[in-house]
Each structure stands twice: as structure tokens, then as C-alpha cells.
């Protein structure tokens, strides 16, 4: 982690990850066969409606095709290079399989160029190896966890994240997620051993608005500063209280301050063993 001298207001407190030190022994250019163009959406869906607010512009990026399904089983692979991916916070690795095929994967911590991994039901419990949840011992840290067998990794994919296997019970594996929620996942779903790389990402301080704009993040407008037609908190002369017991999103759904926003009849509620714990900023003072 690099800290700048306070030569300006923007530089004061700014921190960046020193990618040259972390990726110094790897290739600087991505593997051309696994790279394609990707148009920026600006937070809009296929109908042109804004579904994700405060997104747009930013630097142009090339998309690396990442293998989240890991459907090449029983074939050992070797890490050729560890690279930066502009579309995700964790680092990626170019894996060369014994049959000559190359694929990009999400690389775990402490894995370096030259290391090997295997996707197999009989694989050893070693960082990078991938096997079914039912065959992973209790207490093991995993990442890139599937929710349905063969559907591809869905859980614990961000930088520094991991899930922990806490129990094996009647064909299901209980997994503690990064949010502290404990959830049942079918034991035939697959997961990789280890933790996602680039754990220092959570320490990054953007520092100035211009850097956020380069990342495609636009300025956020407070709900209270909007018109009543645009937000439930909007309207009124000058500064007004929100006028509701609970904070709401622009669409009127509850948000913030530890409120439950999950649908009461969501199909996957039966898979949750323990709800996530509230953070220190969300709990009420006694």
C-alpha cells in the first residue's frame, strides 16, 4: 500500500495498491484469445432505463473472460501469470492446463507463478484446488462458492473475501458468508480452497473526486436534496426531516440503519440458518 505526501487536498490521505510490486513477475498484457470488448452501460438496462444510479463514463476497459464454472475436471493446471483485472477487485491468473488450453481464473492469496491446482473430487485440501463442499473439512476457508452444482461460482469473489465451512449436515454444507450469514448450500456444489487475492483493496482511500470519475462513479445526490416526485425523502422548503419512521430508497423500499430489506417470502429463506449480524454503525445505542 502506497501513501502519498499531502502536496494537495486530493493527495492528502490518498492510498493506492502498488501493482508493480504485486504483479512484477507476470505478463503486462492480457492473453488476447480471452479478451473482448465490452460496452459501458452507464447503469442502464436493455430498455435504456437507469437501474443502477450514479454510474457512467470512466476509463475504457477490456473484458477478460473468467472461468467461474471450472468444468475442466481431473486435468492439472499451472499458473502462468498473475494479472490485474479492471472489472474486479481481486487479481486473476492465466492457467495453463496439461492439455494445452488456457483459461483465466480468480486467483487466491499466497498463490504465485508456477504453482499448480486441480479441479477434482479427490483433490487435496490445498490452496487453489477445487472440490465439492461435502468433501471439504469443517473450518476450511473457501472462495468462489457455487449455489447450484455446475452453475458457476457466485459467493465470495471480491478481493480478500472468503467463506468458512462450519458444518456438514444431511446432504447440505453450512457455510458462513463474508456478511456473517450462515447458509445451507447443497453438498454437491463446488468451491475453491483459500481466500481471494488482493486483500489490501479494503484499505484503499480514493482521495479525490477525479479518481472516482475515472472508475465510472458519478456524484451521489442526497435524497433530502431532491424533489418529492424523485425521492420519498425529497421536497419541502429548506432542510426538512424525512417524514417517515424508516429510511427509504428512491423506489420506496427500506434501507440503512440495520433494517431488514429481504422479502419475507423469498424462495431461499429456508436455506438461511442464521441471519447476518449488524455492524457497529447499524446497531442502536442502549
From TrEMBL:
<dbReference type="GO" id="GO:0002181">
    <property type="term" value="P:cytoplasmic translation"/>
</dbReference>
<feature type="region of interest" description="Disordered">
    <location>
        <begin position="211"/>
        <end position="286"/>
    </location>
</feature>
<comment type="similarity">
    <text>Belongs to the universal ribosomal protein uL2 family.</text>
</comment>
<protein>
    <recommendedName>
        <fullName>50S ribosomal protein L2</fullName>
    </recommendedName>
</protein>
<dbReference type="InterPro" id="IPR022669">
    <property type="entry name" value="Ribosomal_uL2_C"/>
</dbReference>
<dbReference type="InterPro" id="IPR014726">
    <property type="entry name" value="Ribosomal_uL2_dom3"/>
</dbReference>
<feature type="domain" description="Large ribosomal subunit protein uL2 RNA-binding">
    <location>
        <begin position="43"/>
        <end position="119"/>
    </location>
</feature>
<dbReference type="InterPro" id="IPR002171">
    <property type="entry name" value="Ribosomal_uL2"/>
</dbReference>
<dbReference type="Pfam" id="PF00181">
    <property type="entry name" value="Ribosomal_L2_N"/>
</dbReference>
<dbReference type="InterPro" id="IPR008991">
    <property type="entry name" value="Translation_prot_SH3-like_sf"/>
</dbReference>
<dbReference type="GO" id="GO:0003723">
    <property type="term" value="F:RNA binding"/>
</dbReference>
<dbReference type="GO" id="GO:0015934">
    <property type="term" value="C:large ribosomal subunit"/>
</dbReference>
<keyword id="KW-0689">Ribosomal protein</keyword>
<dbReference type="GO" id="GO:0016740">
    <property type="term" value="F:transferase activity"/>
</dbReference>
<dbReference type="InterPro" id="IPR022671">
    <property type="entry name" value="Ribosomal_uL2_CS"/>
</dbReference>
<dbReference type="InterPro" id="IPR005880">
    <property type="entry name" value="Ribosomal_uL2_bac/org-type"/>
</dbReference>
<dbReference type="InterPro" id="IPR014722">
    <property type="entry name" value="Rib_uL2_dom2"/>
</dbReference>
<feature type="domain" description="Large ribosomal subunit protein uL2 C-terminal">
    <location>
        <begin position="125"/>
        <end position="254"/>
    </location>
</feature>
<feature type="compositionally biased region" description="Basic residues">
    <location>
        <begin position="211"/>
        <end position="223"/>
    </location>
</feature>
<feature type="compositionally biased region" description="Basic residues">
    <location>
        <begin position="259"/>
        <end position="286"/>
    </location>
</feature>
<keyword id="KW-0687">Ribonucleoprotein</keyword>
<dbReference type="InterPro" id="IPR012340">
    <property type="entry name" value="NA-bd_OB-fold"/>
</dbReference>
<dbReference type="GO" id="GO:0003735">
    <property type="term" value="F:structural constituent of ribosome"/>
</dbReference>
<dbReference type="Pfam" id="PF03947">
    <property type="entry name" value="Ribosomal_L2_C"/>
</dbReference>
<dbReference type="InterPro" id="IPR022666">
    <property type="entry name" value="Ribosomal_uL2_RNA-bd_dom"/>
</dbReference>
